[in-house]
Amino acid sequence: MIPKEILKKVKQIQIRSSRLVNDVLAGEYVSVFKGRGMEFDEVREYQAGDDIRTIDWNVTARLGHPYIKRYTEERELTIMFLVDLSFSGEFGSMTQLKNEIATEICAVLAFSAVRNNDKVGLILFTDKIEKFVPPKKGKTHVLRVIREVLYFKPENKGTDISIALEYLLKVTRRKTVCFLLSDFITEGFERVLRIANKRHDMVAVSITDPRELEIPNVGFVELEDAETGEITLIDTSDRKMMERFNRFNTKNMEERAKLFRGMGVDLVDVRTDSSYVEPIMRFFRTREKRLQY
């Protein structure tokens, strides 16, 4: 049995996400994510104005007057979520943890997918594969995906994005739209990401807390690495040290953006101190504009 408090939280996310899908993302999802191609639909009689290149000459010869082939877009897609559940996601200096925001983003995109009859799958990972939920259709399945992201308790603490991407390549045969949600406080995944992006439509969703970029002047502070347990003592009143700290973090963010851009991987930058809706909308608008050219 699923505890009532879990069902209540999932229901709250469902209501909030459904409202966003209906009011904000209506039409955006369909216009950005196309199907796998065109599939045969039917043969019908030629009508004035039809493209003569679509004439089915075999049927035309057999019946004695022209017929054309009609095709429709094969709309069905598979949306995969790769969600980083390492312990650094359990941090949040604002109103929500990074993992909670990741859950809501998954919910919004998953409900957009199910509204268009697409399949949704899930890979939860740390420095190992923690959980795999095969792609399926339907609202009930989406609610399960949300519940897993929100309440699954990982066994490990670390991060290895390469393992998650390698697993994706093993369990998926057809091209998918893959959202990789992480704070990307790791390295060494570039080679596998480049390979995965050739087979799939990869979208990186980076979730950052402002305290990971800048720390206020509060004197001496002990910082603990959530994944390794290592503790570092820093003096936040040391202006030069804090300037180096801020420059280092800013440089990392810029290099990350440059890395994804160079691979042709879309990047959605989300922060815990502001709404994730605008970055997602900006991603949709940018991609739609790119598809028009």
Automatic annotation (TrEMBL):
Residues annotated as signal peptide: none
Residue ranges occupied by any DUF58 domain in the UniProt entry: 42-252
Pfam families the record matches: DUF58
Gene3D superfamilies the record matches: von Willebrand factor, type A domain
InterPro entries xrefs: DUF58, vWFA_dom_sf
Protein name in the entry: DUF58 domain-containing protein
Source organism: Candidatus Scalindua japonica
